[in-house]
Amino acid sequence: MKKIINTANAPAPIGPYNQAVLIKDTLYISGQIPMDPSSGELVQSGIKDETRQSMENLKAILTEAGMGFEQVVKSSIFIKDMNQFSQINEVYATYFDADTAPARETVEVANLPKFVNVEISMIAVK
């Protein structure tokens, strides 16, 4: 049975989806863009700040589900410019212990929702 997870501490969905779905012990988190949930404004002050905001949105959803980054088993990162990979990776790495970091792929795409530069989704297991 699936349980819908939503929190006011992360941006509200901008389409027909939820922030996350919990099935048994597995949490599927929708892609998070660098939107400040309190203001509804996009963070556009540089790719590091954009990545940090996306990660903080993911953290809020994980917290709502009673989980943390240590339970993330898979991440997907979508970026507009692969030349920004190292800066994104630098921020992303601060949220994980390198020895237990999740599986991941990073894909360059033509465009993302609201034309942001980064979007990150995750799967976590209790």
From TrEMBL:
One of its GO terms (molecular function) is deaminase activity. CDD domains: YjgF_YER057c_UK114_family (cd00448). Pfam families: Ribonuc_L-PSP. GO terms for cellular component: cytosol. Belongs to the RutC family. This is 2-iminobutanoate/2-iminopropanoate deaminase.
